[in-house]
Write a structure and sequence with these properties.
By secondary structure, the chain is an alpha/beta fold. It is built from 14 helices and 13 strands. A six-stranded parallel sheet has the order 3-2-1-4-5-6, with helices on both faces. The chain has a five-stranded parallel sheet with strand order 10-9-11-12-13, covered by helices on one side. Strands 7-8 form a two-stranded parallel sheet. β5, α5 and β6 form a beta-alpha-beta unit. The protein starts with a strand and ends with a strand. The mean pLDDT is about 95.
Length: about 425
């Protein structure tokens, strides 16, 4: 493979930044089945805000192209799959997007080509689930006619400091020789460097434990928050004191959503269970974190009752809906759990988020989100996402004289709030 021609399958939060980066060194095509997404990108705007208009337009000027036509990527020889790997309502891994992307690759891959998967999976998925689809569709034989690699994505949505080229990349290949080739391609654009794992299963396992570890650590401080709240101790004050020790891990309590930390542990758990092992700590952490939205709603209602505020038909404002701050990504946001739990009390809820796309939220969750701060005053305000717009917001002007302010993120002056995690 003397001349590398890259096709990135899936142009979301992971695929687009990677494709744009590859285009600085290689002839690169971005492929996505969503034609409206492709048209918007070719017009020079990324709705996810991961790639700035300036960078995207510069890349297009220099030859980068996005397409929804599979024929456009037939001449490529290095395919990168960057599609989502969600879980269903029962928390079972849903590999449907991967099967679809593998079918796409199978239709265009040729002898000598390489397909690299970036989607987060449990160990063995690339070889046992994805490659057989490519083989069946293409009629080619794995590790004879075509080859594979696995390089787990490490995109941090909304983070403009740790961009794709500045995060060290794990790489791997289906043979030692292919591993070196895959590593060379990534190393040529990743300024932070690469780590060549000995096998694809090792690389898959490394990715899934990164997020599982973070999930468990956050679950621990979420449990501490519940304990200290019962004791009348401010959790944030405890963490500030404990953080003075040089090796204390400074995790904060909160909602755990998004496409990685709130999902990946289920992939690892499913894999472990298939081997007859029940992963108690991993699943306990998931249960803790998945229940935090309901917990916040319960705490808010208790505070309202203590202040003599009638809960029935009260007006509540939720500040923020995305899964994290300064980012429009609403995938697997746990703010919806606060919303749904409060709705059981027959309250009126307004959700204000200057970053979220109301159409996307309506389509995904069936609720209304507004992008303009409301003029009315509320019985309760819940700050659920630490958007920069909220840091200096005068929340007092949004509340009635007798009201509750609850700070999920711990960014407000604690003297101004009635409760926080």
């Amino acid at each position: 493979m003397d001349t590398v021609k890259i096709a990135v399958i899936g142009l979301g939060y992971v695929g687009l930044p990677l494709a744009r980066l590859f285009s600085t060194k290689y002839q690169t095509l971005g492929f996505d089945m969503n034609k409206s997404r492709v048209d918007a990108l070719m017009a020079g705007h990324d709705a996810t805000l991961e790639v700035s208009d300036e960078l995207l337009q510069s890349a297009i000027t220099n030859g980068f192209k996005c397409t929804a036509d599979i024929e456009d990527i037939r001449d490529c020889n290095f395919y990168v799959v960057a599609v989502p790997t969600p879980v269903d309502k029962n928390h079972t891994p849903d590999l449907t997007p991967l099967y679809g992307a593998s079918t796409t690759v199978g239709k265009v891959i040729s002898k000598g080509d390489i397909v690299v998967y970036e989607s987060t999976v449990y160990p063995g998925v690339t070889e046992d689930e994805c490659i057989p689809v490519v083989e069946k569709v293409s009629g080619l034989k794995f590790n004879v006619d075509f080859f594979a690699g696995y390089s787990p994505e490490r995109i941090n949505p909304g983070d403009k400091l740790h961009t794709v080229e500045k995060i060290k990349k794990v790489t791997s290949g289906s043979t030692p020789e292919i591993g070196k080739k895959v590593n060379e391609v990534y190393a040529s654009v990743i300024t932070a460097g690469t780590h060549l794992a000995p096998t694809m299963k090792v690389a898959e396992a490394a990715k899934v434990i990164e997020n599982s570890q973070r999930d468990i650590n956050i679950a621990f401080v979420n449990e501490l928050s519940k304990i200290f709240t019962l004791m009348g101790i401010d959790t944030q004050d405890v963490l500030a004191a404990a953080s003075t020790k040089w090796n204390f891990l400074p995790f904060k309590p909160g909602l755990v959503g998004g496409h990685c930390i709130g999902v990946d542990p289920y992939y690892l758990a499913q894999c472990a269970q298939s081997y007859g092992y029940n992963p108690e700590i991993i699943l306990a952490g998931r249960r803790m974190n998945d229940g935090m939205g309901e917990y916040v709603a319960g705490q808010v209602v208790k505070l309202m009752l203590k202040k003599g505020i009638q809960v029935l038909n009260s007006n509540i404002l939720i500040l923020g809906f995305t899964f994290k701050e300064n980012c429009p990504d609403v995938r697997n946001t746990k703010v919806i759990d606060i919303y749904n739990s409060l709705k059981e009390y027959n309250v009126n809820i307004a959700v204000y988020d200057p970053w979220a796309n109301p159409k996307v939220v309506k389509n995904e969750y069936g609720i209304e989100v507004i992008n303009e701060l409301p003029e009315e005053k509320f019985d309760t305000v819940i700050l659920s996402v630490a958007h920069k717009e909220f840091v200096n917001l005068s929340i007092g002007r949004l509340t009635k004289p007798q009201s509750v302010i609850y700070d999920v993120k711990g960014i407000l002056n604690k003297e101004l709030v009635d409760g926080r995690l």
